[in-house]
Amino acid sequence: MADDGQVSVVATNRRARRNYAVVDTFEAGMVLLGSEVKSLREGKMELKDSYADIRHGEAFLVGAHISPYDFAREGGHDPERERKLLLHRREIDRIAGSVAEKGLTLIPLKVYFRDGKAKVELALARGKTTVDKRQTLRDREHTREMERAARRRRT
Fold it and tell me: Each residue of 105-116: pLDDT tens digit?
């Protein structure tokens, strides 16, 4: 993902990379209400247990929680509502094909503002099994140990 403009991260899905093996990533815009944008600017969003879904040729973010803005009129917005994602037709078709054929899942990795516009980084991912998670931890510990040994040798 190339940094074209100013980027400020609002929320990250920390468990995503632990529970899923990321195959491919996409950047999508979001259709938001005014009070949702205000809440995002305050950093009041959670991506835990959220996913993206493709229905009738359109992409939606499901299960993402944006807390209501305190100063919104008439209570603001529904925090758990589905939000439409803006992707190119080619991307939607490609994602839909991958999800249907290969058994992949579409999950949000992070939400951020780029040049004043709210964006979500989506990942086509495959669920990790418990064995895969243990292997990832083992590999991480192994590389850490190698780095420690190399540091000890240098001093």
Answer: 899 999 999 988
Distance of CA 36 to the CA centre of its chain: 17
CB-based contact 37:117 (threshold 8 Å)? no
What is the reported pTM? 0.77
CA 46 – CA 15 distance, rounded (Å): 12
Asked if residue 123 lies in contact with residue 115, where contact means CB atoms within 8 angstroms, the answer is no
**7-128 CATH fold:** Small Protein B; Chain: A; (2.40.280)
Contact status, residue 77 vs residue 35, Cβ threshold 8 Å: yes
Residue 99, burial from CB neighbour count under 10 angstroms (0-12, 13-18, 19+): middle
